[in-house]
Amino acid sequence: MTRVSLISSSAELRDRLQPLTGSTAFSPAGGTGDPASLLAQFTGLPPEVLIMDCRADANGKLALAAVLIETYPATGVLLVSDRPGDLALPAMRVGVQDILPPYATLAEFGDAVEAVASATRNRVAQLTEVPAEVTRVVPAGQVVSVMSPKGGVGKTTVATNIAVGLAQRAPGSTVIVDLDVQFGDVASGLDLEPHHFLADVVHGAARYDAVVMKTFLTQHKSGLYAICAPNVPSDADKITADDISHLLHGLAAEFRYVVIDTAPGMSETTLAALDATTDLILLSSMDVPGIRGLRKELDTIRELELTLDSRRVVLNFADHKGLLSVADVEATIGTRVDLALPRSKAALTSVNQGIPLLQSGVRDPLTKHLRNLVDRIATPTRPGRTVESPVAGAKPSPQPASRWQLFKKKGTVAA
């Protein structure tokens, strides 16, 4: 029998649900302001389902439910509310599985409790899955990472234009992720005012439920979805490489294209993104410090032995009157340059307005070159990627070291 507890100030509701809850029904007064003190009131094992009456202080109960679900994933939450429609979206975002009105029958509460308990068990099973020894081919979206060893080279401008261009081909199929977790500019580059940020997507219920995750995305006029960098730089400390790996795996399963605007250099989160990347855009400005940094970055990528479907070297702010030519750059970095983006006055206006050139369609040489880059990325067919298929009871296969571990072991620095 499912262990059920109730938090409610209503004596009538406590009495009516007593066949479900037994003696574990409490008034919200007295130490139920946080999950630890709340669960301390339960004798024996914690409940599998906690029914929370949120007719009073709905916001406080939702906040408590969010912390409870994050801290105790084996406990599911069922809310009681006389305005379930208003609470449906915020409740789903924190991981609440269901909401019932207070006048629901005992049988309806019983059915909802069993459904919540089943969903919670499935979630816990996903958290404790053992990797399998066998593999299968799973269709997955392209993960396009735009990287640069240094800042100020137009990386966000290129990433947002790629994302808008891909979204125009198939609206709703593309998401851009701002992985410059401290000072990302994707929101500004797309003229967005997001209500939710990267930290909201990688934590809580969104981490385990694709439907919940999508409610945290910000939609752009072009049909593009965006996950913007935290609006408070200190929130970056809460985001780990494992969070990023998990997020990108989930996004690639839901979207045809995942575009990543990385932070300059090779941080832990950038290396986590590289592990998931199929299409890598290496961007540099045409100056000596930028090209030297690009050469170091290429050397590091070679040492990490990355397997990519595609890798392209792109030069920004190209100027045939400059001291460096494309041939000079190729001789320095030891590989060919795939595309040179010209200097453009329209680009500055685009950045200041938050309207990518591929969105506005401004007639400019840079617009044509960016469109060409999108065409190269959007190939008609892509091979499926091989991923491990989880099988209960299978022995775990040896796990390779992460890019971050290899990076630290080699002692490589990409400036």
UniProtKB/TrEMBL annotation:
Compositional bias of kind Basic residues: 406-415
InterPro entries in the record: AAA_dom (IPR025669), CheY-like_superfamily (IPR011006), P-loop_NTPase (IPR027417), ParA/MinD_ATPase (IPR050625)
Domain of life, per lineage: Bacteria
Positions of the AAA domain: 142-308
Name of protein: AAA family ATPase
Region of interest (Disordered), ranges: 380-415
Pfam entry (one): AAA_31
Gene3D superfamilies reported for this sequence: P-loop containing nucleotide triphosphate hydrolases
